Amino acid sequence: MGMGNGTEHIPHHDVVIIGGGPAGISALIWCHRLGLDALLVERQESLGGQLEAIHNPIVDYPGLPVENGRALRDRLVAHVERLGCTYRCGVDVQACDVRAKRLATSAGELAARALIVATGSRPRRLGVPGEAEMIARGEIYSATRDAQRFAGKRVAVVGGGDRALEGALLLAEAGAHVTLIHRSNTYRARPEYLEPVLRHPNVTRLEHAVVTSILGTGRVEGVAVTLRHPDGRHEERLLAVDAVFVRIGVEPNTDLVRGQVDTNADGTLRVDDQGETSMPGVFAAGDVCTPPQFSSIALSVGQGMVAAKAIALRLAAGQL
Q1: 64 and 30, same domain (yes or no)
Q2: Same domain, yes or no: 80 and 172
C-alpha cells in the first residue's frame, strides 16, 4: 500500500505509537496523562506484544509479581481501558515515511507530529531448510508450558544463553532426552541454569555444532547437524528428534524504518537519552532500541514514559 500525496483526509494526531507491548502501552498512558492526542496501533488482535509468550512467573517487575505474561498484560490493558486511551488492534502498518511522519496501514493512512516506534523484537531464526515449514505447522513450543508433553521423547535445544539452558533444564527435568546444540563450547547462560544442565543425565551436549536443516514433512522428525572438530574436520550427523527448540536470541523489529534512521551494530535503533532516533520527531522505546542483554519489561515501560514526556515538552515549545 503506497502513501498518497494529499493530506486533507488523513487523520492527524500529535503522536502515533506503533506497537502495543509494554513500551507502547506505557507511552500511550503517558501521552494521555500529558494531554496529547495519541493513537496506538497494534498489528495483533490484542495488546500485550511479547507478554503473551511469557509462560513463566514474572518475578522482576518491581512490586508486581504475577504468574505469567498474560496476567501482566491484563493489568496493563485494564489501566489503558480505565483511562480511556485510544488504540486500535488488528492494524498492520505496512509502510512508514519517518521524515513526513506518515504511515500506510491496513486501515488507511495516518499522520502525526511525532512517532514512537515500539515494535519490539522477535526470536532469531536459524534460517535453515525445514524451519519455516516447522513454524507454519505450529510446532513452536514453550519449555515452561509444554515440557510434560515431551517426557520420554527426544528433543533438540539450539543455543547457549539463558533461554536455551533454562529450556533444556526444564525439558530434562520433565523426562525428555535433550540434545543441546551449541556453536561453541562457551556458554553465555547464568550458572543457575548452566551448572545443572552440564551434570544432568538427560542432557547430551553437541558443541562446535551447527544445525543445517530440520527434517520431517508432516512433523519434525530430526535435525541435520555439522560438527567442527579441533583438527578442522567437519562431521555431518543426523539426529532423530520430536521437536526443535530454537533459542539463539532475538532480533529487533526494525523493518518499518530500516534505512531511514541510524541503527547500532546489533541492529537496534540508535536513540539518544530521550529516546529520539536520528530523525527528529521519531522516537523509539522498548526492545526495538535496547541491546538484548538489557531487555526487560521495566526498562521498556520507562523508555515509553521518557519518549512521551520528551514529545510533550517539544510540542509545548513549538519544536514539532
Answers
A1: yes
A2: no
* Tally of structural domains, the chain: 2
pLDDT at 195 over 70: yes
pLDDT tens-digit readout, 218-274: 999 999 999 998 888 999 999 999 999 999 999 999 999 999 999 999 999 999 999
Kindly calculate the radius of gyration of the chain based on its CA atoms and give it in whole angstroms.
22
Which grid coordinates belong to 286? Answer: 522498548
Q: Which contacts qualify for 197-201: CB closer than 8 Å, 24 or more apart?
A: 197/165, 197/168, 197/169, 197/172, 200/168, 200/169, 200/172, 200/173
Residue given cell 524504518 in the structure block: 257
Are 28 and 87 contacting, i.e. CB atoms less than 8 angstroms apart?
yes
* DSSP run (H or E) holding 137: none
What pTM does this model have?
0.89
Q: Say if CB 22 and CB 51 are below 8 A apart.
A: yes
List strand residue ranges (DSSP E) for the chain, in order.
12-18, 38-42, 87-89, 93-97, 102-105, 108-117, 121-123, 154-158, 177-181, 203-206, 209-215, 222-228, 234-240, 243-246, 250-252, 282-284
90: in domain = yes
**Residue 38: CB atoms within 10 Å:** 25
Cα 190–192–193 angle (5° rounding)? 75
How do residues 226-238 score in pLDDT, each as one tens digit? Answer: 999 888 899 999 9
Of 204, 230, 246, the last residue of a domain is 246
Whether residues 237 and 135 fall in one domain: yes
Q: Closest by alpha carbon to 291, among 259, 269, 258? A: 269
The Cα–Cα gap between 34 and 277 comes to 21
Same domain, residue pair 30 and 60 = yes
Is the same domain home to 229 and 140? yes
Write out the residue range of the structural domain in which residue 32 sits.
Answer: 12-122+250-316
| Alpha helix ranges (H) inside 191-296 | 191-198
- Where are the extended beta strands (E) located within 136-221? 154-158, 177-181, 203-206, 209-215
Among the three residues 231, 246, 261, which one is the final residue of a domain in this structure? Answer: 246
